[in-house]
Specification:
Helices cover about 75% and strands about 0% of the residues. The chain contains 10 helices and no strands. The chain is elongated, with a radius of gyration of 19 Å.
């Protein structure tokens, strides 16, 4: 099992490698950017899929995000980790895509994802086949609660619970203070907890 110290070391090594690759790209080495694409394409696709559910659109927007990153990489100065900078581009690309079509970003969180919320112990009891109906009802309630959240709350919660970003990384992706991130996540969790609490009691 990886210790906290080892985990921090691996993250540091990853960031250092990213900075080295970014430096090579900035020096005109296109192949180095291809390595960054390989490293992060699945994570970028994952975050875009939190906003957009058409698989072809996800693929197209993932590619668009990397094109934007490549064009802007000369302005990347390393003030944040490369992947948080890339995440911000991906989030903005997804939102812009929806806004261009006059659609509000949708949010879908699976029951398994929601197990990470404060109400988690109650959710784990719904796995048996005979309770599939209750599971479906709970899924619908979670989806509804997420869809009703203001965009800034929904984005912060999904980046934390679904994508596993730290508060610091979320602050950089959403371009707001860490205290604001914590507040948004707390409010989002509270709203969802209140929505599904009656179902968990039964």
């Amino acid at each position: 099992m990886t210790s906290a110290t080892e985990s921090r070391s691996l993250t540091s090594d990853q960031s250092q490698t990213d900075r080295q690759l970014v430096g090579r790209v900035q020096n005109g080495e296109r192949a180095a950017f291809d390595l960054l694409v390989i490293r992060y394409q699945s994570r970028v696709a994952s975050i875009i899929s939190r906003y957009i559910h058409d698989s072809q659109d996800v693929l197209d927007l993932t590619q668009e995000s990397f094109v934007k990153a490549y064009r802007a990489i000369g302005r990347f100065r390393g003030d944040s980790a490369f992947y948080t900078w890339l995440y911000r581009i991906a989030v903005n690309t997804a939102k812009n895509h929806l806004e261009a079509r006059g659609r509000r970003p949708l949010a879908v969180m699976e029951v398994e994802d929601a197990e990470q919320l404060d109400a988690a112990p109650g959710l784990r009891d719904l796995g048996s086949p005979e309770k599939q109906l209750q599971r479906d009802q709970l899924q619908t309630a979670i989806d509804g609660a997420l869809d009703e959240l203001p965009e800034e709350l929904r984005s912060a919660l999904l980046l934390r619970e679904a994508d596993g970003l730290s508060y610091e990384d979320i602050a950089q992706v959403l371009e707001c203070p860490i205290g604001t991130v914590r507040s948004r996540i707390f409010r989002a969790r509270d709203a969802i907890d209140r929505r599904i609490a009656p179902m968990l009691e039964t």
